[in-house]
Structure formats: structure tokens, C-alpha cells
Amino acid sequence: MKDKRVSSKDVAREAGVSQATVSYVLNQSPNVKIRPETRQAVLDAARRLNYHVDYIARNMRLGKSASVAIVSNSNMPSYIFLRILEGIKSSLKDRNYSLIVSFANYTDIQDAEFIKSYYSNLVDGIVFVFCDLTEQGTEFLDERQIPYVTINANYQPHGRHQIKTDLRPAMGDAIAQLKAAGHTNIGYIGQFAGDEKSMRYSAYRAAMRDHKMRVQSRYVYKASGDESLIESAIAEQLDPVLADSKLPHALLCDNILAGFYVQRYLHKNHISMPDAIALVVIGSNDFCKRVHPSLSAVEAPLHAIGFRGSEFLFDIMESEGETPADSIVLQWQFTRRESS
Fold first, then answer.
1. The model scores a pTM over 0.70
2. Is the CB of residue 85 less than 8 Å from the CB of residue 31?
3. Which of 23, 126, 155, 263 has minimal CB crowding within 10 Å?
4. Residue ranges making up the domain that contains 16
């Protein structure tokens, strides 16, 4: 025979408080002050009775799904996505919300699965993670007042409700550290080398200019971003430089993969870091801390991006007609390790 289900009334009786107090404590009501000892008594009683809040029933009463759709591209690097997702989950957990992951594999946004989920009351809002919305897409969402946030590395001029990042100050910190260490020739290598439209390469050029240092074309090396080609592309660029003993004093790699293969190239050729050449990578990955020497890095605040993106969505959902700021800007950080 199935055991009788424990109710909030049972918890209230066990804790010696009202049923309303139990509701306030277990639902973490932010606007109700509860004495710490009373809160603990309720939590202890709920634990003893193995009581859990029925969120489905609660959300039905409130007219909410208590879920958020996370929309991303299927080819997004797993580490970046998971770190952002951890930040989103940290925010959702505080509000007893869950998430539903969807991929941006639609032709017309009105036919997308996450839009159907919104209109079916399966989700209360949408977070787009590194999947660019078209102008038509943002117009569709705005016209229908669907709560959404976009998380992107670059600003979209037609978008609203954006979490974006600024790489430039952290890049300036990296160049400043390299310059202070006596490195005068600071090069750049990777798939975006020489691309003025690239956020990473343009931040490198701006930082060099700000610190009164000259970008020298002979120290700018273009290398493929394709994992199957990048190792040979790096060797093709650096072999002649090494043969002429004209390596730069320091090298910025425009992604983690490039950093890995450059470091491997230097090891194979018995070039020490940072004595013979200092190395800094642009990107975020635990790999940077685990290799030897550990890699200095200009890193994106991935967890904070996810957390602030989720909090921004709740601000929008709770705004009651008032439009919050169009965007929030988060800063990258330079972390110095053994390679520089």
C-alpha cells in the first residue's frame, strides 16, 4: 500500500509553526522576514518527514511553468556551453526554476520548437546562447512581448536584451604585463591574424597602440582554425622564423587550440617558456591550468555570463511593462600563469 503523502500541514505541525510560515521558508519568499531559528526548525522538520515542495502544483497556481528555454547552436564548444550553463543553473536554482535545452535549427523563428514551448506554457522565457538572432527574429519576439535575452560575444545592433563582453581592457592588461617583463616584439598567431573585423585581433592591435608598441607584420602569423590543419599551419608559419632565429619575444594565440599547438611546437623544438618566448592564449578552458608550463590567458567570464543572462531574463519577466537596459557588458580578465 502506498504511503500517505506528507503535506505542508504535517511539516507545520512538526515544526510548531503556521502552514504559511512553512510556505514562506520552503519557497524562499524574498519579501517575508523569518527568524533564523524558525527557518531552521521548518527545514529540520521537512527533512525529518522527507517533505518536498510540489512545484508543479505551485506553478499551476501561479500560472507559470518555472522553466526557461536555453537555445544554442549544436556546434558550440562544449566547455564554453557547459560553463555558461552552470551560471544559468546557479541563477535558476535560487528561484526553483528548471531549464530546457533547444538547438537553433529552425528556418523561420515562428516555427521553432522553443516558440511552441513558450505558447504551450512549457517555458516562461528564452535565453539565446551564442546563436545570432536575425533582425526579423528580434522583431518577432519584441512584437509578441516574449521575454528573451541574447548572450553574444559581439554586439548586435538590431538586438535588445543582450549580454555582451568587452575584451579590450583585459587584452591591455596582458600587453602591459608582457611589456613590463621586457618583451618588445609581441606577435599574434591564429585564424584571425590580420583580420581587422575580428574582436580578438582588433583588441590586440588597440592594446599595442595604447602601450606605444608597434604591430609588426612579420610577427603576425595566419593559421587555420581547423583542428585537422592547425598543427601543420603553425609549423609552416614558425619553421622559417625559427630557422632565421627571429622569433618574437612574446606571442598571443587567438584561441585555446592554437595555444595548445604552439606550446607543443615550442616543446618539440626545445624552446623554453617564458625565457625564450612568452605565450598568452585568448580563451577559457581548464586546459590552461593543467599543462606545463601553465598558460597565461585572457579569459571570458563564462559563469558570470550565464548567471547575469539568467538574472537579466528574470528582470525582463518581472518588469511589468518597463523595459530594462538594452544590454549588460561584462569584462574579460587576464590571468597570468607560468608561460609569461
1. yes
2. no
3. 155
4. 8-53
Number of domains in the chain: 3
Instruction: Convert the pLDDT of each residue in 164-218 to its tens digit.
Output: 899 999 999 999 999 999 998 999 999 999 998 899 999 999 999 999 999 999 9
Give yes or no: residues 132 and 150 share one domain.
Answer: yes
- Residue 121's region, left for phi above 0, alpha for psi from -120 to 50, else beta, is left
**Sheet of 162-166, strand order:** 98-103, 67-72, 125-129, 148-151, 162-166, 327-331
> Which helix (H) or strand (E) covers residue 103, if one does?
strand 98-103
Task: Please indicate, yes or no, whether residues 159 and 184 belong to a single structural domain of this protein.
Answer: no
Q: What one-letter code names the amino acid at 20? A: A
Name residue, grid cell 518597463. Answer: 322
Residue with cell 575580428: 198
Q: Which residues 6+ apart lie within 8 Å of 123 measured at CB? A: 65, 67, 68, 69, 100, 114, 117
The domain spanning residue 134 has which CATH number? 3.40.50.2300
pLDDT in tens, 115-140: 998 888 888 999 999 887 888 888 89
